[in-house]
Write a structure and sequence with these properties.
The protein is α+β, with helices and mostly antiparallel strands. It is 59% helix and 14% strand. Strand 2 and strand 3 form a beta hairpin. The radius of gyration is 39 Å and the shape is elongated.
Length: 487
């Protein structure tokens, strides 16, 4: 009969009522398409990062950062922590067992009687060295009947928090892939600007040398020579600043890798970086399942919703069943009492009385946190839409900007060549050559930055779309490292 009662109560605890609201995804702004029309269906975010970023040196840097980055190690440790917390919460659904044992020994040197602890005396034969020993052991069981769903809501909250930490790890991976790619493209852009600056500096050296000769011959005034010297000095100063930025960018990449500052290996030139000819973004609705920060915010909202039920259930009575079974044996000198067994069972019903008002405010706190989580989720969705839209227009316009600047550089190269010929022939002033050289230098630097921006805009779009995600899972595209598919 007792066993049937326990089974019935266990069934009730699993199927009983659940306090608090069930989670439901909040309404979010609807968007059927992006402002920038897509020329191709599908989404670039379905590509794994190693198919998007094909520079071998960059791929090796990303693999290293996914293995050794300290932020990623902290994210993995957070997952272990919340996995353990979820397991603890799940154990509250089943009875807990405990065991105890005692051993007692006593020796009496009085010849008259033996006194038993707790009262009473037993006459003993007139001899010294009388002993008393007692051994006992108990096994106890305790089980809280989850009538109001407090424990199940706790498990629900713990599971949502664990999923949130897992999405946080994926967000860290995606951020590391994007940050490493951006830093690498920054480095290659600086390398290209240094190459341009050195080439321009050499051209200024030639102009200074030619102007000095013409000045010595009396063909030009000292003012012309000073202007060329000033332009040459300004270019040298700009070269020094670019070289400083290169070292600092290498140091930044080294720390991202989890290493001490050191030189960074290069691969393809900035102008040789392959990128897909078309950048399809997919549908806006896909972001709700694709972006790790959105999924993370949603799981945090689910945990906050479940905690409302936990707070509400704490205001109702709690039923706990306890039982204990044990045995003991008593020995007095040469007399031994047969072992005996003990059994005990109890049901305890506790309900809050004096602190009921305080528990009511705990419910209000949980509800307020739930409302905060709703606002964070909606804000995260809006920010995701904005980041995608910004990245889309950046991809489109930086491509157009790059094409226009390439035409500009070609025209300025031709202009400089003609200016040099005219200046050497004495048919043009120093100002024509100086202006053509300076304008070409600035245009080449601007083109290098635009090429960098074009590559980075694609990476930002990939990151904004939650790149590396696949609706059927990333198992089909996994490389050898288990961490690489998360990007």
């Amino acid at each position: 009969m007792t066993r049937l009662l326990i089974v019935a109560l266990f069934t009730v605890s699993l199927s009983g009522c659940l306090m608090g609201p069930d989670y439901k995804r909040p309404d979010t702004p609807k968007a059927d398409s992006w402002r920038v029309p897509a020329e191709k269906s599908g989404s670039i975010a379905n590509l794994p990062w190693w198919e998007l970023l094909k520079d071998e040196a960059l791929q090796q840097l990303i693999r290293t950062v996914l293995e050794e980055n300290l932020d990623l190690q902290m994210a993995a440790a957070n997952i272990d922590e919340y996995q353990a917390q979820l397991t603890i919460a799940q154990y509250d659904l089943i009875p807990s067992l405990s065991a105890s044992g005692t051993a007692f020994g006593f020796r009496n040197t009085n010849n008259n009687a033996l006194t038993i602890p707790g009262g009473g005396a037993i006459p003993i034969s007139q001899r010294e060295g009388t002993t008393l020993s007692q051994f006992s052991g108990n096994v106890g069981v305790k089980w809280e009947v989850d009538l109001w769903g407090r424990i199940r809501r706790s498990v629900e909250a713990g599971r949502a928090q664990l999923l949130s930490k897992q999405e946080n790890q994926r967000a860290v991976v995606l951020s590391l892939v994007g940050n490493m790619a951006e830093s690498y493209f920054d480095l290659r852009a600086l390398d290209l600007q240094i190459e341009i600056t050195k080439r321009t500096l050499k051209a200024w050296d030639d102009s200074v040398r030619l102007s000095r000769l013409r000045y010595q011959k009396g063909d030009i005034p000292k003012l012309d020579l000073d202007r060329f010297l000033a332009e040459r000095a300004g270019t040298a100063a700009q070269l020094a600043d670019l070289e400083r930025q290169v070292v600092q960018r290498e140091n930044q990449i080294s720390v991202l890798l989890g290493h001490s500052p050191s030189p960074v290996s290069r691969g393809r030139l900035l102008t040789e970086q392959p990128m897909p000819p078309e950048i399809p973004p997919g549908l806006p609705s896909e972001l709700l399942q694709r972006r790790p920060d959105i999924v993370q915010a949603e799981q945090e909202l689910a945990a906050a919703t479940a905690n409302i039920g936990v707070a509400q259930a704490m205001r109702f009575p709690q039923l706990a069943l306890t039982g204990q079974a044990g045995g003991a044996q008593l020995n007095i000198s040469d007399m031994s009492f047969n072992p005996y067994a003990t059994f005990m069972g109890a049901a305890a019903l506790t309900a809050p009385l004096y602190n009921a008002s305080a528990l009511g405010y705990q419910v209000k706190i949980a509800e307020a946190r739930g409302n905060q989580a709703i606002a964070r989720y909606r804000k995260t969705v809006l920010q995701a839409f904005q980041e995608v839209e910004d990245a889309l227009i950046s991809v489109q316009k930086t491509k157009e900007q790059q094409e226009a600047q390439e035409q500009q550089v070609q025209a300025l190269e031709s202009s400089l060549h003609l200016a040099e010929l005219r200046y050497q022939g004495g048919r043009a002033s120093y100002l024509d050559l100086l202006t053509a050289q300076r304008t070409l230098f600035d245009a080449e630097l601007a083109l290098a930055k635009t090429r960098r921006n074009q590559l980075v805009s694609v990476v930002k779009l990939y990151k904004a779309l939650g790149g590396g995600w696949s609706p059927k899972g990333a198992e089909e595209n996994k490389p050898s490292s288990t961490m690489q598919d998360a990007g």
